[in-house]
Design a protein that fits this description.
Helix content is about 50%, strand content about 5%. It has about 375 residues and is of the alpha+beta class.
Length: about 375
């Protein structure tokens, strides 16, 4: 039996232990045999930085190493495009990310393409095989690959065949513990109805149930905002660099509003602007870096600069973003530096920075 598939940089970390092969999994021995010798074995030119596992009639097989990078970049671009649509409220249910959500998608045999960083350990390898057994394809990305940091930031990622099926909650689950106790004790419902009848949240007194047994108010859709976490902030800033966002005139105003209304109040200015600097430093495109700068510009200039009126917010932006990116700005070519010079001049004219702060900024950016 050939050795188990490995990727350079893989550890014994079991962060993907939650992954389980879907119910229709073929015998494990057959799957391992079908994978064949791993790429990057001794005698070849260096270890592989990524693997692609493809489905065949005889079980999962490794894609030829020369084809992996092209396939991976094309599929990852598709994932980012779908993520952008999802962020804008379109084509929901086409992607999953994070260990828990991707695990659920695998359990539902609903993954078309799976992306696993090696930090997920052996459970990630098993998940990729399981997806390939059901006709999908999967990638295991090593820590030396160009896309590793991006994919690792998502935890795990998948392009779905169909939206995830969510279990429908019971009326008792929605009604809450107090209502359950009322039902158990035989007390009257919250609306004064007969004993044992429980009204759900927002239900009118004696409201007749809908056909599915839920009050009409339960069926109304609710708007759920993405979680306000540093990880979500990183994803939003990375999304600014996608071709869809760069071509959308509303993407920067929307991102600015999110910073003003959600991230700054929840995470604090120091954490937010440190993430800005980190993503700016990793950005590979001129347009992506400018998009990040323009969000900062809008925070200073939009809505009379209310987001930056607080001295702590302004100083954290200066210290943890504007000055930290100085080494990058100094190294930019003249054409790219023009946008940063124009921004600094505008901030000086609008007096959004104190004279000493503007002087620190221009020193860090090597501008007169």
């Amino acid at each position: 039996m050939p050795p188990r598939m490995q990727v350079a940089g893989v550890t014994a970390k079991s962060a993907m232990a939650g992954f389980a092969a879907p119910p229709r999994q073929q015998p494990k021995a057959k799957a391992k045999a079908a994978l064949g010798p791993r790429a990057g074995a001794p005698g070849k030119a260096g270890p592989a930085t990524a693997f692609a596992v493809l489905p065949t009639d005889n079980g999962p097989v490794l894609a030829p190493p020369a084809t992996v990078n092209g396939m991976l970049k094309a599929d990852w671009s598709l994932f980012l495009e779908l993520a952008c649509y999802s962020l804008h409220g379109q084509m929901d249910g086409r992607i999953a990310f994070g260990i828990e959500e991707v695990s659920e998608a695998i359990a539902q045999a609903n993954v078309g393409v799976l992306f696993i960083p090696v930090s997920c350990g052996h459970g990630g390898e098993s998940a990729v095989r399981g997806v390939a057994m059901l006709g999908g394809r999967g990638y295991i990305i090593g820590s030396a690959h160009d896309l590793y940091e991006d994919i690792d930031d998502w935890g795990a990622a998948a392009i779905l065949i169909n939206p995830l099926a969510a279990a429908k909650p019971s009326l008792e689950d929605l009604a809450g513990p107090a209502a359950k106790r009322q039902k158990t004790d035989g007390a009257s419902g919250a609306a004064g109805g007969p004993a044992g009848q429980v009204a759900g949240p927002g239900a009118m007194p004696d409201a007749p149930p809908a056909d599915d047994g839920f009050p009409d108010q339960m069926a109304q859709p609710t708007v759920v905002l993405p979680p306000t976490t540093e990880k979500q902030l990183r994803r939003d800033l990375k999304t600014l660099g996608t071709s869809e966002s760069l071509g959308d005139k509303t993407s920067i105003p929307r991102a600015t509003e999110s910073m003003r209304e959600r991230y700054l109040p929840s995470l604090g200015a120091k954490s937010v602007f440190a993430v800005f600097a980190d993503i700016f430093g990793r950005a590979k495109g001129v347009a992506h870096r400018k998009a990040i700068l323009y969000v900062i510009h809008e925070l200073f200039m939009g809505k009379k600069g209310v987001a930056m009126k607080d001295e702590g917010c302004r100083l954290n932006c200066l210290e943890h973003f504007l000055i930290r990116i100085g080494a990058f700005v100094k190294s930019f070519k003249t054409a790219e530096r023009q946008a940063y010079k124009k921004a600094a001049d505008t901030w000086g004219q609008a007096r959004v920075l104190l004279p000493t702060e503007l002087s620190q900024l221009k020193d860090a950016w090597d501008m007169d």
